[in-house]
Amino acid sequence: MQQRTVNCPQCGKEVIWEPASRFRPFCSERCKTNDLSQWAQESYRISEAEKDPENTITTEPI
Question: Is the full-model pTM beyond 0.85?
Answer without folding.
Answer: no
